[in-house]
Amino acid sequence: MQIIKTREELRAAVRALRADGRRIGFVPTMGYLHVGHMTLVERSQAENGATVVSIFVNPLQFGKNEDLDKYPRDLARDSAMLEAAGVDILFAPDVREMYPSPMLTVVDVPTIGSQLEGEVRPGHFAGVATVVTKLFNLVQPDAAYFGEKDYQQVQIIRRMVEDLAQPVRVVAVATVREPDGLACSSRNVYLTEDERKAAVIVPRALDLAERLVREGLKDPVALEAELTAFLKREPLAEPDVVAVRHATTLQRVTDLSDEAVVVALFVRFGTTRLLDNRVIAPVSRAEDTH
Ligand code: AMP
């Protein structure tokens, strides 16, 4: 595996892969890798002749009082994992290499990016869309792999790629979970032992949402209220976002029996925010498939 720190070396390495006739799959990450990230890597390897992984903790997508400085980092461990998995290139630039001068250009998908997580993290998704565009331009992948755990991010990237005709196929990969159902996340290491135990309430709330819709609940506002009350039964959980939205536009819906919705949860445990979601098909359509 080549470990590359500069944009120039990356371009040369990508040119060499292309000259070799290889299709390139790309997995952008912020590092501190876990089995969720490695599942994206495996998928890329299965579908392409070469896989490039980036590790870059992107300051543009962190708000002033967020965890940019304390975000967990372990490049030695991450490179060993990627090397063992047979990745071709690890691109791990520092901030000056990615942003040699202040960024004056912004890529944003405001109608999708200002909702949900964007409401509590203003500017976050513009930072994501901008860095992903820049990484796409550097790596020039055929396909790029993203986790459904960050559901809103996937919708934004898909829309950005479509609107700007970026020549890359976006692949969304199902959320990988711990045995008790908690979504794997680099931020899970922040949780105390008690918070970690309590965090299982998040996937349980998604199970409840699915059950209530299946039992005939049609009102999204009532569903949000049920889920908020359920989450609040856990004293360590502070729900920041409990939202039931259209599965692709993320706009509000009026009737759960009409179209697929996403239940998006953004729940704080102490200072740690955990994110999870589930797409729920309308009951009539789910029954059609039986
Ligand atoms: P991050 O390093 O947190 O920015 O994540 C990098 C990529 O891995 C993103 O596309 C995430 O959605 C994806 N990812 C993170 N956690 C998981 C998970 N538990 N299952 C699947 N993909 C994940």
Written overview of the protein:
The protein is of the alpha/beta class. It starts with a strand and ends with a helix. It contains 12 helices and 9 strands. The strands form 2 sheets. It has a 6-stranded parallel sheet, sandwiched between helices. A 3-stranded antiparallel sheet has the order 7-8-9, covered by helices on one side. The protein binds adenosine monophosphate (AMP). Adenosine monophosphate binds next to helix 2 and strand 5.
Strand content: 15-25%
Number of strands: 9
Number of helices: 12
State mean pLDDT (0 to 100 scale): 96
List keywords for this structure.
12 helices; three-stranded antiparallel sheet; 9 strands; 19% strand; 40% helix; six-stranded parallel sheet; single chain; alpha/beta; 290 residues
